[in-house]
Each structure stands twice: as structure tokens, then as C-alpha cells.
């Protein structure tokens, strides 16, 4: 098991240097030793960032489900693969063993075949966080169909756009879903979407809520009876390393969503290796990633990464606030979770609530805490570290993207000393570069620039479905021979990276580059402030000035607003300098967020610059109502 499990910092540097000196031989060794192949590759890597074209393990044959399921059966057949924790804490958790999961996947794969789905066909999956969701991804992979998961919080419009863009033939959904105290009628959302999707010939429906649905004759079928009748084994389709595994849509800054295409072998190798190291996974651990499988985090670190390692992975159907704000910690105690991976937005929401919700539970099983999705602000970091980790569990602040497939910049717990708000060091095999406005690499430490990656890694996306030109334009054109992430970052004196946010979040005020994240951190440290977001707006003298949207904590609601504004600016002056002071501060009830918890600054920018006639695409907003509320009170 050479180099598979990094145990101390010196070893990290050694393995890192090796992986960078000769990436091909490094990844070849990993691929050889830790996976099962039907045929060996002819080339480890061929690449050209100009075209762009990237191929890993070309010529190899495999099926990812044999790596995630079949090969574990002799040694781990009775081990829990998926631990399902339902929305309602009174409903029993389900422990699905590797043997049971294998059987479910095979049965579902046979159902797909009966529905006429063939290798290469696209299947849209629109399901809540129930076991059938994970099973359906693997069932697609079993027969070589390409899954396209659409997060079940998206509207029928957004769903239809995604189904049509990749020309899906089949949709897997459920009658409905439980979310906290609510139920949502998913099937009727699908029905509405399908009015505009002539290419969909069959719909398979999971019964989750015993809901009333209309089933369209000839098109719609309940899934369970078909699975019961299906054969319990299914021969795995032998796939090429570079065949697509899935499409996953990610919102662009403008225009329609981008269907990122990931291919089988490289994605498998990279997600498995990162899972093992970034979470210091050991046999017997119970790993919980709270993301939805509708996002890349769920694909890579609920399904493929954990299962490739034969791990027990938790699927949680519920929400952090139901039946109360202690739900996450109750689940940690109940299932003795060893690794807990969540998003800063969830941490901030829970940190606003009474500490009793955390302190009530025994969290001593935890060994590693993870964060992903946005920069974690200092206050949230400390809250997480003190109250969840009890200063005993390292926090891995993992930076990566839908496009990167797996974690790219991250500490390795118990190996890399952590610093709040820093994603720290590049993962093994990852070669970051910071670039300036002229397209030159900025070398050395204590510098900041645009974050690029110089060399291919196995799980980089290969194209945008149906639009290779856009793939090239978006990621491979800004800087020659580099993958451009769209993020800004700084590298500190010891070479640690801090992600400062999307590059379009950099605001130039009087010629100074200001990242939004440190200013927001400073504001958020004010005791009356719950959360904030900053954008620039045009200013005669400064070029841009800063506009802050601030959510107050309940304790701050009664305070004099002008005093609060003065205190906030005083604090920014102390933390960053007077240059970062805000010209305008508006107190708001909420911030417009995407369904994955990212603030939609584009909308705030329009509001701040009084340009609200066309807000652009708001279909991915979780809370469209706050936009109107903010506009009604604009300064
Ligand atoms: C995994 C995921 C990608 C964007 C990325 C960043 C931001 C993600 C961090 C982060 C600071 C982090 N995929 N981002 N992780 N920023 N620190 N640890 O979130 O495609 O949905 O988003 O998210 O801007 O480019 S994603």
C-alpha cells in the first residue's frame, strides 16, 4: 500500500514532491495497487490544455461498481455500506450492507435495461436523500448509462432545462420528499417539467411518502415492483477509462447551466485517494458528509469515494433544524460518527442558536471535521473547532469545485497544522499557480492572484456536455496552458493558500484589491452581526466603493442603526484598514443564496448599483423573496 496513507508532514512533502516530479508514475502506481481493472491502460496520461483534451488511463477497461461493490463482497459483504438516517428521528435508521447494496444496484440496473436504457444513454435522477438515490447512480454506472443528478430542490423549469440539455431518456424520481416538517410533491414537479421534455420515454417512481400522484400510462412506473421482479445479479458493463460516468450541472455566472462531464477511471482513482487521506479514513470509521448527492460533494464523498474504500457512508434525509437545532449532533452521537463534513453556511446557522443544542450530545467519537463550499470565516471556524471538535478534531477546510471532481487544496488531518480560514496546502499531485492580471505567474510567498492549476489531475472534468468551446473558453483560455479556477487566492509566508473568493468578488477600491472574505470576517465578528455580504458599486472618486448587506442577530435588532454602522466601520478599520470601510451598510433580513448555500453576489451588486431592471437568471435562488425585501428598503 505504498504512499496510500500519509501519516506525517515530512511524508506529505516527500509524496508531494514525488507526485509532482512524475505525476504519471505516481498515479499509475495508485491505479495499479488499489483498484480492479478488466484491462490495463496503454497510456497513463495524454493531455493538451490548448484543445483542451485530457485522458487518464487510456485503453483501460473497468466498471466503477466492481470497484465500489463487488470487490468488497468477500471481505466486507456484511459490513454496512450505506447508513440511512431518515428525516424523522423516530423512523428507524437503515443499515444497508455491501451485499444488500450490490443486490439493489443489480436489480435496479436490470430494471433500467428493461426500460431500454443502454450504455451511453443519459438518465436524469431527481430524488431526495434516500437510499434509492445512491443506488440509482450506481445502477447507471453498472450498465454504462450516464447519470445526471438534479438536486431535488430545483424547480420544474430548472429540471426541464437540464433534462433537455443532455437529452435524458429516463427520469428517476419519487412521489415526494420529507424536508423537516414539510413534504414536497416531487412527482408533480417532474410532471410539469416533462411537459417540455419530449425525449423522456420513461419515469420510474419511488414511493417515499405514500403520496397521491398521477401516473402517465406507458411512461410512468412504480420502481419497487419492477425491482422485486428483476433478477438479483447483473453483469457489469465493461467500460473504457475515458467513457463518461456522469454529467453534473453547475451554474455559470451568466447564461445556461454548464453540464460538467466526468469520466470513469480518473474520477474513481482521485476521489478514492482523496477520501482516504483527507479524512484519514480507517476501517471501522463511520463517515458522514451532510451534502446532498445533488451536488458534487455528495457524488464524490457520499457515494464514490467512500464506497471505493469499502467505507460506511451516512445518508441523511433531513435538515439541521428539524426537529430542533441539535439534529446534526444527535445523529453524530447516535451513529458514533468519526468524520463529519459540512458547509460553513450550516455552521453559521447553527452557531446562531443556543449552545445547549451542541453540548447536550456526546460528540467524542469525532476525529475529523470538514468544511467545504465557500470560505469559512474565522468566527465560524472557531465555533466549529471549540464546540463541535472540542479542540481535539482537526478541521479540514477543503477547497475544490464541481469541475475538479475531488478535493484540491486541503490540510491532511493530524499531518498539516491548520490555520483558520486557510485551505493550507495543495493535495498530492496538485500544482497550483497564482497568476497576475498580465497572465504571468506570481512566484514566491506572501502574494495573491488568480488561482490556476498547471498540470492535469485524474478527476478534472473533460468537457461541458454539448459545448466543448465553452469548456475551453471558461477554463483554459484566460491563462495559457493553465486550468483557471475562477477563484482568487493568496499564498502566505509558509506557502499556505487562502481562498479569497470568486475573482469577481475582488473589488478594486481606489486601486486597492480587496477580497470580500476578510472584510466580511471582520464585520461578522461584531457581536450584533449574524452574517454579511459585501459588493462593490460605482463611485466617482474611488472607482468602486463598498456596500455591505448585514443580517443582525436577534440581540442586535433593537440597537440604534447608525451606532451599529459606526461600530462596524470602526472594526473594519482596526482589522483591515480605513480603505476597507463601507460606504453604505444596509441591514437586511436575509441574503439571496443559491440552493447550495452560496451568496448570489451578482444580484446584490445590481441592487447596490441601482440597476435592478434585469436581475438575470434567478432560477437557482433558494429564497427569491428576500430579493424583493432588500430592494424595498434599499438605501
Ligand atoms: C465543492 C464545491 C466551487 C466554488 C469554488 C469556490 C467555492 C468551495 C471552498 C470554496 C473557499 C473552500 N463545488 N469553494 N470550497 N471557497 N474555501 N474550502 O463547493 O462547484 O459547488 O463550488 O466554491 O469559490 O470555486 S462547487
Topology summary:
Elements: H1 9-21, H2 23-34, E1 43-48, E2 53-58, E3 61-62, H3 64-68, H4 73-76, E4 80-85, E5 94-97, H5 98-114, E6 122-126, H6 131-143, E7 146-149, H7 156-165, E8 170-174, E9 177-179, E10 182-184, H8 186-194, E11 202-206, E12 220-222, H9 223-229, E13 239-240, E14 244-250, E15 258-263, H10 264-278, E16 286-289, H11 296-308, E17 312-316, H12 327-335, E18 339-342, H13 344-351, H14 356-359, E19 368-371, H15 378-388, E20 395-397, E21 432-435, E22 447-453, E23 463-464, H16 468-475, E24 483-491, E25 497-502, E26 507-509, E27 512-514, H17 516-524, E28 529-539, E29 543-552, H18 561-575, E30 584-587, H19 601-608, H20 625-632
Parallel strand pairs: 4-17, 6-7, 6-8, 7-14, 8-11, 11-12, 16-17, 16-18, 18-19, 19-20, 29-30
Antiparallel strand pairs: 1-2, 3-13, 4-5, 9-10, 14-15, 15-23, 21-22, 22-24, 24-25, 26-27, 28-29
Bound molecules: 5'-O-(acetylsulfamoyl)adenosine.
5'-O-(acetylsulfamoyl)adenosine binds at residues 250, 295-297, 371-375, 397-402, 423, 485-487, 499, 502, 596.
Count of alpha and pi helical runs: 20
The whole-angstrom Rg is: 24 Å
> How many separate domains make up the residues?
2
Find the CATH superfamily of the largest domain: ANL, N-terminal domain
Which regions have little confidence, pLDDT < 50, spanning 5+ residues?
none
Bound molecules: 5'-O-(acetylsulfamoyl)adenosine
CATH architecture title of the largest domain: 3-Layer(aba) Sandwich
Structural class: alpha/beta
Amino acid at each position: 500500500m505504498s504512499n496510500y496513507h500519509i501519516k506525517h508532514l515530512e511524508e506529505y512533502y516527500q509524496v508531494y514532491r514525488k507526485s509532482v516530479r512524475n505525476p504519471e508514475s505516481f498515479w499509475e502506481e495508485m491505479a495499479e495497487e488499489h483498484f480492479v481493472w478488466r484491462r490495463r491502460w496503454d497510456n497513463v496520461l495524454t493531455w493538451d490544455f490548448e484543445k483542451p483534451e485530457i485522458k487518464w488511463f487510456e485503453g483501460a477497461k473497468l466498471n466503477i461498481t466492481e470497484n465500489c461493490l463487488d470487490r468488497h463482497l468477500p471481505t466486507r459483504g456484511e459490513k454496512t455500506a450505506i447508513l440511512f438516517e431518515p428525516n424523522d428521528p423516530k423512523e428507524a435508521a437503515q443499515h444497508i450492507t455491501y451485499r444488500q447494496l450490490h443486490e439493489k444496484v443489480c436489480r435496479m440496473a436490470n430494471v433500467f435495461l428493461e426500460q431500454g436504457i443502454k450504455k451511453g444513454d443519459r438518465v436524469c435522477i431527481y430524488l431526495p436523500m434516500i437510499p434509492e438515490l445512491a443506488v440509482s447512480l450506481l445502477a447507471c454506472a453498472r450498465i454504462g448509462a450516464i447519470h445526471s443528478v438534479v438536486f431535488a430542490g430545483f424547480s420544474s423549469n430548472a429540471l426541464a432545462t437540464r433534462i433537455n440539455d443532455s437529452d435524458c431518456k429516463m427520469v428517476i424520481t419519487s412521489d415526494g420528499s420529507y424536508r423537516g416538517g414539510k413534504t414536497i410533491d416531487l412527482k408533480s414537479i417532474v410532471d410539469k417539467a416533462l411537459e417540455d421534455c419530449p425525449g423522456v420515454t420513461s419515469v420510474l417512481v419511488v414511493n417515499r411518502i405514500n403520496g397521491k400522484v398521477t401516473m402517465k400510462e406507458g411512461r410512468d412506473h412504480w420502481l419497487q415492483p419492477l425491482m422485486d421482479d428483476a433478477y438479483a445479479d447483473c453483469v457489469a458493463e465493461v467500460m473504457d477509462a475515458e467513457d463518461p460516468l456522469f454529467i453534473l450541472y453547475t451554474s455559470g455566472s451568466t447564461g445556461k447551466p454548464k453540464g460538467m462531464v466526468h469520466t470513469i477511471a480518473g474520477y474513481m482513482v482521485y476521489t478514492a485517494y482523496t477520501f482516504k487521506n483527507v479524512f484519514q479514513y480507517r476501517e471501522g470509521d463511520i463517515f458522514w458528509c451532510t451534502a446532498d448527492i445533488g451536488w458534487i460533494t455528495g457524488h464524490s464523498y457520499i457515494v464514490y469515494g467512500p464506497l471505493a474504500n469499502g467505507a460506511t457512508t451516512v445518508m441523511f434525509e433531513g435538515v439541521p433544524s428539524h426537529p430542533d437545532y441539535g439534529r446534526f449532533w444527535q445523529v453524530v452521537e447516535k451513529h458514533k460518527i468519526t468524520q463529519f463534513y459540512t458547509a460553513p453556511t450550516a455552521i453559521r446557522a447553527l452557531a446562531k442558536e443556543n449552545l445547549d443544542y451542541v453540548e447536550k450530545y456526546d460528540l467524542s467519537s469525532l476525529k475529523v471535521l470538514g468544511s467545504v463550499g465557500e470560505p469559512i470565516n474565522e468566527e465560524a471556524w472557531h465555533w466549529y473547532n471549540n464546540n463541535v471538535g472540542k479542540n481535539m478534531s482537526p478541521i479540514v477546510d477543503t477547497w475544490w469545485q464541481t469541475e475538479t471532481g475531488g478535493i484540491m487544496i486541503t490540510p491532511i488531518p493530524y499531518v498539516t497544522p491548520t490555520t483558520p480560514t486557510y485551505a493550507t496546502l495543495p493535495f498530492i499531485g496538485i500544482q497550483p499557480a497564482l497568476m497576475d492580471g498580465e497572465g504571468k505567474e506570481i512566484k514566491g510567498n506572501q502574494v495573491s492572484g488568480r488561482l490556476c492549476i498547471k498540470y492535469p489531475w485524474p478527476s478534472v472534468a473533460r468537457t461541458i456536455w454539448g459545448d466543448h468551446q465553452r469548456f475551453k473558453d471558461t477554463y483554459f483560455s484566460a491563462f495559457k496552458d493553465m486550468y483557471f479556477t475562477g477563484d482568487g487566492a493568496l499564498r502566505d509566508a509558509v506557502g499556505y493558500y487562502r481562498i479569497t473568493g470568486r475573482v469577481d468578488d475582488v473589488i478594486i477600491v481606489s486601486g486597492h484589491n480587496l477580497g470580500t472574505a476578510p472584510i466580511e470576517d471582520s464585520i461578522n465578528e461584531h457581536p450584533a452581526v449574524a452574517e454579511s455580504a459585501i459588493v462593490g458599486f460605482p463611485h466617482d472618486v474611488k472607482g468602486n466603493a463598498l456596500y455591505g448587506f448585514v443580517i443582525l442577530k436577534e440581540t442586535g435588532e433593537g440597537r440604534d442603526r447608525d451606532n451599529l454602522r459606526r461600530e462596524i466601520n470602526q472594526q473594519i478599520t482596526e482589522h483591515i484598514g480605513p480603505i476597507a470601510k463601507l460606504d453604505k451598510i444596509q441591514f437586511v433580513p436575509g441574503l439571496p443564496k443559491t440552493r447550495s448555500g452560496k451568496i448570489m453576489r451578482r444580484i446584490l451588486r445590481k441592487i447596490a448599483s441601482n440597476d435592478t431592471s434585469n436581475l438575470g437568471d434567478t432560477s437557482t435562488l433558494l429564497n427569491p423573496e428576500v430579493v424583493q425585501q432588500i430592494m424595498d428598503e434599499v438605501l
